[in-house]
Amino acid sequence: MTQPDRRPAAACPYRTLFLSDLHLGALGARPDLVLAFLQAHRAETYVLVGDILDLWHPLLPHWSAADQAVIDHLVARKAEGARILYLRGNHDPFPDRAPQHCRVPAEAQEALIHTTADGRRYLVLHGDACDGRLFRAHIFTRLGSRIDHGLRRFERLLTRRRPDTPPEARSAVDMLLTSVNALLYLGRAHERKVLRLARRKQVDGVICGHFHIAGLHDDFGLTYANCGDWIDSLTALAETADGSLRLLDARKAPALLPGRAAAEPEFAGA
């Protein structure tokens, strides 16, 4: 088992961190970047907005020491007093079916209402509930995971990563899947769908993941905040002490974006 971070506890610069779509256990996951990000960005509360685990490969299981280090870090933060909230996404296994050492240290939920320090209320959910019926089918999710897994294994057989390649560099499969994903959500209908759910709850906006397209804006009357993911966007959403929301980009320093911008800010990976 990977040893948790034993460095002296530092003050938490963020009230809440929202992360989604880590896909730990998948070949495309970047647990090394997730762990480095978590170590550099401490929070009082961590909200894991679904698809944290991706363990649909029983014939070719892939769970690395780096994947385990992310789980161990969250366990250690909880032991230090941080609050961990976990929303189950469509790729997450049923909690009781995940191996004990892989489990997120929190009870899985479907959705929650988050209240920021300045009193604003947000519906927080993964986002897969807004997919078409075919895409919501469990067998479709498992099929998608295995196609992704197969493509990445095939690519690894054909290519070898150069030692001087930047850790955030993207492969040909990454770019192919990102392009397909962008076509699926062309027109931003998915944003309008999740915001309709927020309106029904009479809240100020929605915080979600799932779509692998980070965003933070109020173009449709309510705040739409998407955490992004840790395969394509390499982003997370943060709530500061005053209640404002910011997108954090792991490839930028400093990587802070204002949560109340009139238009969607530009940043790498959006």
TrEMBL record:
SUPFAM superfamilies: Metallo-dependent phosphatases
Coiled coil: none
Any single Pfam family the record assigns to this protein: Metallophos
Name under which the protein is recorded: UDP-2,3-diacylglucosamine hydrolase
InterPro entries named in the record: Calcineurin-like_PHP, LpxH-like, Metallo-depent_PP-like
Entry keywords, A to Z: Cell inner membrane, Cell membrane, Hydrolase, Manganese, Membrane, Metal-binding
Domain Calcineurin-like phosphoesterase: 15-213
Transmembrane segments: none
GO MF entry, a single one: hydrolase activity
